[in-house]
Write a structure and sequence with these properties.
Layout (H helix, E strand, L loop, with lengths): L12 E5 H13 L3 E6 L6 E3 L1 E5 L10 E2 L38 E3 L14 H9 L8 H18 L7 E4 L6 E8 L5
Parallel strand pairs: 1-3, 1-8
Antiparallel strand pairs: 2-4, 2-6, 4-5, 7-8
Helix pairs in contact: 2-3
């Protein structure tokens, strides 16, 4: 008996680009926007999760979404929007209706990662630079040092992607294999 295209429990593997995972994590750590990886119906055993950014900054009205492949800026504080994923987390987002009788699933980037490194904050990279007695501090040196730290952070995140994780569905969690696709963003 074939499964319903709106039944997310049929998902067995999820393909994600490493760039989308890094970008989603970085957005959540550096801005008021909230990024997830969205899996849209119709569902099948092999699915693709794409970057989904809620640019409302936590506002209820005027919510928007976008599929973008750019990476967030390099400064700011962490604003993780939670560590859970779910089928109803973003019910109010634009494009939530899919025409296939099911709701999209939203995966927090942290669910796909094991022990991701801390995002380098400008204050931390400044302190590192100031603690080096061999190097004189300048704003330009700090900028270069921070950019290098962010590049290294981005390059390290794909190594933290899990091979499997529990995908939350309305019927309960389903163990899913993660397939990574290379990205030209890193």
């Amino acid at each position: 008996m074939p499964s319903e295209p709106s039944d997310p429990t049929v998902v067995r593997s999820l393909a994600v680009t490493t760039g989308d995972v890094v970008a989603a994590l970085e957005v959540n750590r550096t801005s008021d926007d909230h990024a997830t990886l969205r899996v849209t119906p119709p569902f099948s055993a092999r699915m693709r999760a794409r970057l989904h950014v809620d640019r409302s900054g936590g506002q209820q009205s005027g919510e928007t979404s976008t599929h973008r492949t750019g990476v967030a800026g390099d400064s700011g504080e962490s604003s993780d929007g939670g560590e859970t994923a779910g089928y109803s987390q973003h019910e109010g987002t634009v494009g939530g209706g899919d025409g296939h009788g099911g709701e999209p699933l939203y995966v927090e980037p942290t669910q796909l990662l094991t022990d991701p490194p801390e995002y380098p904050r400008p204050a931390d990279t400044r302190a590192e630079l100031l603690s080096d007695p061999e190097t004189a501090y300048t704003v330009e040196r700090h900028h270069e040092h921070h950019e290098r730290a962010v590049r290294e952070w981005r390059a390290s995140v794909p190594g933290c992607i899990r091979e499997q994780f529990p995908l939350d569905t309305p019927a309960g969690p389903v163990e899913v294999t993660v397939r990574t696709l290379e990205s030209d963003l890193l």
